[in-house]
Write a structure and sequence with these properties.
The structure holds two protein chains of two kinds. By secondary structure, chain A is α/β, with parallel strands linked by helices. Chain A has 18 helices and 22 strands. In chain A, helix 14 (368-382) packs across helix 15. In chain A, strand 4 (55-60) and strand 5 (63-65) form a beta hairpin. Chain B has a single domain (46-157, 170-320), classed as ABC transporter involved in vitamin B12 uptake, BtuC, CATH 1.10.3470. Chain B is built from 13 helices and four strands. Chain B has helices at residues 5-24, 31-56, 65-81, 87-112, 116-138, 151-156, 177-193, 195-205, 207-212, 217-243, 255-264, 276-295, 300-327, and strands at residues 143-144, 163-164, 167-168, 246-247. The chains are: A alpha/beta, B mainly alpha. The interface between A and B is medium-sized, with 37 and 28 residues. The complex binds adenosine-5'-triphosphate and magnesium ion (MG). Adenosine-5'-triphosphate binds at residues 11, 14, 16, 34, 36-42, 83, 385, 395-400, 427 of chain A.
């Protein structure tokens, strides 16, 4: 029903699309796969009229069309959920859903109709949300659902989803999949972008793979391909097997200890400790209080009782600067767009911000050469795809932005690192490389507190897993890196009865 | 990156306008009567623009630039009149006063988290009340008219009076220009080459991410407002020297030009992007237009209309660039 034919899109310094084609059929869920920066989001932006291709054609129902704006795309029945959030926080759920085509009656917005429509679509999605509540009161996952409702508003026949599950809990992802299946069964065409191959295999019928802006696998049934074949196609060569050489058990005394911490955010009696060379996992569902704990530890939220010990000494950490300069603690934030990046600043500054303290000379002079050297080293080590380090961070693809926000803290060379959801939106190969990197950091003696909602990631990396629910630690497990056994134990802890 | 190109545009525009005005009215090139005072004004208002630019860099604004200049100039007048201090000692005292009032303003903003618009507006009112009271109590006709040694020379001398052997500078360029060049160099270095400068920009770009990257954002808020007060004080001094007295009304006309110069020059209202050279060029452009229109005989009442229109256009361009940045 919708065909993209040999699209080319050039940005200064990169060919984001270089002969990309896509055939989306009605009634099917179609996977669009590719590494970070392969051009997936750019393709979606072209299909929704946000950007215009430099070459190539778009066909809808066999006819060539030009989409000049998202409104035109919506009129053609194409709705999309973009990788970056696009809701207006101060508006209500209903207003956000109807925003692109407000129902007008006698020159005024027909609020009753708008609300009814919003409720109908939310009902379709089986989502129990009050259409009048303001969006800034919702959780990340709930906002995601509102975005989908927004994309469906006004009878969209084509739904494009750019990494919709990157930051939602497994249960919420399940809900989403049910909705997607239902839509496809009712005759809609759904394009699904994700770096989580398990999901892709679970819900998609057909698959297209992009590599460096070019289509290398064109709309084939997904059942014909094995997981590893697809990965090889994305990467363009066979991968080396990842190796995680065993690390010696951490025996040194803990460098970071929390002792019965209670916070204003609601944590009660949280205790944990991390030794040098150890990766301690903090697992829990979205909203269980893990990021808030990290923030309280860094002085961003008040701690009401209990004590924090760093290298055996009781400390009160005032802010991130002090944590970095005095205690050598770093915190890689979860939310890259709001908390991690300076989107309108060059990549170099985004990475170097944590090292200025170390390399600045008299009067705070920063040597450009020294800075450039550090930046290009981390760009290389993480394989960040960019035109130049003077490029603005906001121009990178989503996954590459994520890498920049991690690079910043790796460059800081801390001894204790709190990492919050490091691989959200990162492609399979890079994810492996990240895991290797984190593993290597621990092997070199870094103490790591890893917060992740990705159970597989947790089980690959962590030595011990602490499970948090409702702002309390519910239990601790030694991790033997056996997925089945550990995952069951973790899930059991999460759903255990109140103690 | 996108800050570089507009500069050539500005420079080109200035050159074209100078040629146009020079053709329409050859008096435009008169060194003593037009160019010298024009360049002196450019020097003064460049510093005014810089005073606004430093707070714009963190995404704030300073509506009290003019009154801070007056506050600072008041201390200078006092030190000449009562303490009989030499010119540059009095300047230092006044600059300290300017820096102090700026830092205090910044501290209030950082402590309370109240919008800079509101706090600087309140500060403007407070100073508006305070300054005339001091002048009425201490002076006969609301101005300190003592002229310390060197003040007349600073006002009148040009680079034509500075000679190396028998090569002299241009008599069209006032020596006071050096008082604008010095802060331009200092700020250029601050923003491009130092840690605090870049931290100011990142604080302006995304305050939350800045805090979470270990930037002491509150301290940077104080830094920016301190610099703003200091620069406002310097501009107040330059204006007082140019007009011959330290009076309560100094700085009354600073507010609009401060935004005009900075924003025309490519400094972003939203913070995170500054241009020192741009502020100089933006200021030059507005003053060239103003002086040129005067010379070709456009009445004062219309002048401000023209300037207002320019500001509006510059602001829309700023918005447009920003929107494009977000989209891509
Ligand atoms: N506005 C822009 N200006 C410059 N380069 C851009 C712009 N938008 C995208 N790019 C570049 O185009 C390439 C493709 O980006 P795109 O966002 O489509 O990747 P993606 O496949 O969605 O990756 P990810 O999985 O990381 O989200 C990247 O190299 C990116 O840096
Ligand atoms: Mg993307």
């Amino acid at each position: 029903m919708i065909v993209a034919d040999q699209l080319v899109k050039v940005f200064p310094g990169v060919r984001a699309l270089d002969g990309a084609s896509l055939r989306l059929e009605a009634g099917s869920v179609h996977a669009l796969l590719g590494e970070n920066g392969a051009g997936k989001s750019t393709l979606i932006k072209i299909l929704t009229g946000v950007q215009r291709p430099d070459q190539g054609r778009l066909l809808i129902g066999g006819e060539a069309v030009t989409l000049r704006s998202p409104t035109e795309a919506a009129q053609a029945g194409i709705g999309a959920v973009h990788q970056e959030r696009n809701l207006i926080p101060a508006f209500s759920v209903a207003e956000n859903i109807a925003l692109q085509r407000l129902p007008i009656r006698r020159g005024l917005v027909d609020r009753a109709h708008m609300r009814a429509e919003a409720r109908r679509i939310l009902g379709l999605l089986d989502v129990d949300l009050d259409p009048d509540v303001r969006v800034d009161r919702l959780s990340v996952a709930q906002r995601q659902l509102v975005e989908i409702a927004k994309a469906l508003y006004g009878e969209s026949r084509v739904l494009l989803l750019d990494e919709p599950t990157a930051s939602v809990s497994p249960a919420e992802a399940e809900l989403l999949f049910t909705v997607v299946r239902k839509l496809a069964d009712s005759g809609a065409g759904v394009l699904f972008v994700s770096h989580k191959l398990e999901e892709v295999f679970a819900i998609c019928d057909t698959v297209t793979v992009l590599r460096d802006g070019r289509t290398v696998l064109d709309a084939e049934p997904i059942a014909d391909h094995a997981r590893d074949d697809l990965i090889d196609l994305m990467v363009g060569r066979s991968r080396e097997a990842l190796s995680f050489p065993p690390r010696p058990p951490a025996t040194q005394p803990a460098v970071l200890e929390l002792d019965r911490i209670s916070t204003a955010a609601g944590h009660r009696e949280v205790s944990l400790s991390v030794r040098p060379g150890e990766i301690v996992g903090l697992y829990g569902l979205v909203g269980s209080g893990r990021s808030e704990l990290a923030k309280a530890l860094l002085g961003l939220e008040p701690i009401e009782s209990g004590s924090v010990r760093v290298r055996g000494k009781n400390v009160v950490i005032k802010d991130v600067r002090q944590a970095l300069a005095k205690h050598r603690i770093g915190y890689v934030t979860e939310n890259r767009k709001e908390e991690g990046l300076f989107l309108d600043q060059p990549v170099s500054r985004n990475i170097a911000v944590t090292v200025w303290g170390r390399i600045a000379g008299a009067l705070g002079h920063v040597s450009p050469a020294r800075e450039g050297e550090l930046v290009s080293m981390w760009v290389d080590r993480l394989g960040i795809k960019l035109a130049s380090s003077r490029q603005l961070a906001g121009q990178l693809s989503g996954g590459n932005q994520q890498k920049v926000s991690l690079a910043k803290w790796l460059a800081a060379e801390t001894e204790i690192l709190i990492i919050d959801e490091p691989t959200v939106g990162i492609d399979v190969r890079t994810k492996g490389a990240f895991h290797e990197l984190i593993w290597g950091l621990a092997a070199d003696g870094m103490a790591i507190l890893l917060i992740t909602s990705d159970l597989a990631e947790m089980i690959t990396l962590a030595d011990r897993v602490l499970v948090m629910r409702d702002f309390r630690i519910r239990g601790e497990l030694d991790n033997d890196h056996h997925y089945d056994r550990t995952s069951q134990a973790v899930i059991r802890l999460i759903h255990s009865k109140e103690i | 990156m996108s800050t570089r190109k507009p500069l050539f545009g500005l420079l080109g525009l200035i050159v074209v306008l100078v040629v146009v005005f020079g053709t329409l009215s050859p008096a435009f090139f008169d060194e003593r009567l037009v160019l010298f005072p024009l360049l002196r004004d450019i020097a003064i208002y460049t510093v005014v623009g810089l005073a606004q630019m430093v707070v714009l860099s963190i995404g704030h604004m300073n509506l009290a630039v003019g009154r801070m200049a007056a506050f600072s100039a008041m201390f200078m007048g006092l030190s000449y009149d009562r303490l009989h201090l030499p010119l540059y000692a009095g300047l230092c005292i006044g600059l300290l006063a300017g820096a102090a009032i700026g830092a205090f303003t910044g501290w209030i903003i950082a402590r309370t988290g109240v919008n800079s618009f509101v706090v600087t507006l309140a500060m403007d009112f407070a100073l508006l009340g305070l300054i005339p009271v001091v002048y009425t109590a201490l002076t006969a006709n609301a101005a300190f008219t003592v002229k310390p040694d060197g003040m007349r020379e600073l006002r009148q001398y040009s680079l034509g009076d500075v000679c190396l052997g028998n090569v002299c500078g241009s008599p069209a360029v006032p020596q006071m220009m050096l008082l604008a060049v010095a802060p331009m160099l200092a700020l250029g270095y601050l923003y491009h080459g130092t840690r605090p400068g870049r931290e100011l920009l990142l604080t302006g770009s995304n305050p939350l991410a800045a805090e979470l990257s270990g930037i002491p954002t509150r301290r940077r808020v104080v830094t920016a407002h301190l610099l703003s007060g200091l620069l406002a004080g310097l501009a107040g001094f330059m204006l007082a020297v140019a007009t011959g007295s330290f009076r309560a009304t100094i700085g009354e006309e600073f507010l609009l030009p401060s935004f005009l110069g900075a924003i025309l020059g490519g400094t972003a209202m939203a913070g995170g992007v500054v241009s020192v050279i741009g502020t100089f060029l933006g200021t030059s452009l507005t003053l060239v237009i103003r002086r040129g229109l005067e010379l070709v005989g456009i009445g004062l009442e219309y002048l401000n209309v023209y300037l207002g229109v320019i500001l509006l256009l510059a602001l829309s361009a700023d918005r447009f660039l920003q929107r494009r940045g977000v989209k891509s």
